[in-house]
């Protein structure tokens, strides 16, 4: 990552946000392990005293992630479960979380994709677990079948989150070809366990 660039592409930008807010020794979540790129990054961020919980619903993804992690496997719990069940597996404060939506790259079955209901459920639960000042990054791909539906549901959901609880940004490069992802990032700015929504006030 070049230090002279400020307006990074989406994936490096999401890592920069996490690198600035996650500290050694913390617990973090990779909500979509996939081929393990973000899991490895998170394992490096939390160091030998920290821990990563990495979710995926495909065994092939967890296998690829295990291979990618190499010596850092002992910092990571790989979970063959939906991120919507994060509260079943993680019951402590987390320093941050990352999502990378869509399908598993290079997979034989590209029809296995993240879905709006489980993505939104996971985000809501993760916000409750997140430390004050912590960030959740969501890289959103909308070029595949089902991607547009997830994008719209997600945007509608995050726009309803109360501004006193969470700051929400959308970040994207406007001059890239081939359906690049955009980023949604959420920063917890009030200490809460249950996030409030605008319509509830
Ligand atoms: C774009 S890939 C993730 C890429 C990954 N971050 C990487 O670095 O390679 C999306 C992943 O989300 C997984 N997925 C889909 N629905 C899921 C769910 N409900 N819970 C957890 N993972 C899910 C897919 O199996 C797929 O591996």
Textual characterization of the structure:
Helix 5 packs parallel to helix 6. It is built from six helices and seven strands. The protein starts with 9 loop residues before the first helix and ends in a 13-residue tail after the last strand. Strand 4, helix 5 and strand 5 (130-140) form a beta-alpha-beta unit. It is globular and about 45 Å long. The chain is of the alpha/beta class. The chain has one domain: Rossmann fold (3-Layer(aba) Sandwich), CATH 3.40.50. Strands 3-2-1-4-5-7-6 form a seven-stranded mixed β-sheet, sandwiched between helices. Helices cover 32% and strands 23% of the residues. Bound molecules: S-adenosylmethionine. S-adenosylmethionine is lined by residues 32, 34-38, 55-58, 61, 82-84, 100, 102, 104, 112, 114, 118.
Write a concise synopsis of the structure shown.
The chain is of the alpha/beta class. It is built from six helices and seven strands. It starts with 9 loop residues before the first helix and ends in a 13-residue tail after the last strand.
